[in-house]
Write a structure and sequence with these properties.
ten-stranded mixed sheet; two-stranded antiparallel sheet; alpha+beta; single chain; 12 strands; 15 helices
């Protein structure tokens, strides 16, 4: 018998216990990967090709405080600015839902593709949207989930604003990092609100990446010490500002992940301890035949590591297969546009499984090291 065959036979000597151990590791690894995926979605907002050129301009006091429309003329005159659009978050609920997880934004249709060029929208649909002030375009994910088609009407009850929307779908877009949103005319929102002369924020596209820092500084300086000071920042910095609001969620998920790892360690260590305790006489015989301590340690480590690796392949591979094929918006109620099991997440899970295999073998290895041949031969298998 070869040494690998010897290790494999010992690992599955008690097939039921070995199977339960592998399944326990697999389920824990699956849960760990799922938690890491959710944490990744919270802390690493997706980016697209135009992210590095876009600049978010909001009120310095608060994102909920509007900005005056007159600021647009000054922003457009700043060197390095290619396009500007107003953008206001509506924040309503669709069709009686208590919480609608896809957002509605008032925007200037003529500037959509100039600022958010990654959005794919047929020209005829864009023209129809521009021509009809009460029309809107819908992201393909939301359209698919709700069965929305061109020509359908979308009633949205306002929460943030004291008005409701009655929109007609004239286009369906795709290609952005979040194809769930609804975009409608900012002029329509202005009419409903009585033309307040304000916008939620400005989105600016710079001509080049080199222009971005200069444009940010110029925008901030242009409205410094005014009644509506602004905070201009890159799109990435703007996204990370939202991430910081999820601090408690991050701590919670990290805590749960730690508990999962600890429980996994207890399961693996307990299994290995029972397996080695049943084979003390056999290991003593190997000692008597001339096998050294480090060789016995290697047998125990290989057995423990093999069980942990089998659990990782089953749990990690299962998580990757499930999350790759699942409809993330439907599964999460629209909270996440996607659930990606990244190589970094799989790598972290693999490291955890490897460390568990090593740590779980320590206690049995020490027990074997302290055991004399005579004492071991007195034990029963």
């Amino acid at each position: 018998m070869t040494i690998p065959g010897f290790i494999l036979k010992n690992a599955f000597r008690n097939k039921r216990r070995a199977a339960l151990c592998v399944l326990s590791v697999a389920s824990s690894i699956f849960l760990l990967v799922a938690l890491l995926v959710v944490l990744n979605e919270f802390t690493n907002p997706p980016e697209d090709a135009g992210t590095e050129l876009r600049i978010a301009v909001r009120n310095k006091v608060s994102l909920a405080t509007p900005l005056p429309v007159r600021q647009r003329a000054l922003i457009e005159k700043i060197p390095g600015v290619e396009a500007v659009t107003a953008l206001s978050y509506f924040g309503g609920n669709y069709r009686g839902e208590d919480t609608t997880f896809w957002a509605q934004f008032a925007i200037e249709p003529e500037q959509l593709l100039a600022v958010f060029g990654e959005a794919h929208l047929p020209r005829e649909q864009l023209d129809a949207w521009i021509a009809n002030r009460t029309s809107c375009i819908v992201g393909i994910d939301t359209a698919t989930r709700y069965g929305i088609k061109i020509g359908d009407r979308i009633p949205i009850v306002g929460n943030y604003y004291p008005v409701d929307l009655d929109l007609t779908v004239v286009g369906i877009y795709e290609g952005t990092t979040d194809d769930r949103n609804v975009f409608f005319h900012h002029k329509y929102l202005d009419e409903l609100l009585g033309d307040p002369g304000t916008v939620g924020m400005w989105w600016v596209k710079a001509r080049s990446a080199d222009d971005v820092p200069r444009v940010i500084d110029a925008i901030n300086a242009a409205f410094a010490n005014t009644s509506a000071e602004v905070l201009a920042e890159t799109e990435r910095a703007f996204q990370l500002g939202f991430v910081s609001m999820w601090a408690n969620i991050k701590v919670l998920i990290s805590s749960i992940s730690s508990v999962v790892v600890f429980a996994l360690l207890l399961v693996t260590a307990s299994t290995m301890s029972m397996a080695i305790r049943e084979r003390l006489r056999e290991l003593s015989v190997l000692k008597a035949l001339g096998f050294r301590r480090h060789e016995l340690f290697a047998f125990i480590l290989a057995e423990s590591f093999g069980l942990a690796a089998a659990g990782f392949l089953l749990g990690g591979g299962g998580a990757w297969a499930i999350f790759s094929g699942v409809d993330a918006p439907t599964l999460t109620g629209g909270l996440f546009p996607s659930l990606d099991v990244t190589p970094r997440i799989l790598g972290a899970a693999a490291v955890v499984a490897a460390l568990l295999g090593i740590v779980a073998s320590l206690a049995p290895s020490l027990a074997v090291a302290r055991l004399s041949v005579a004492e071991g031969l007195k034990t029963l298998d």
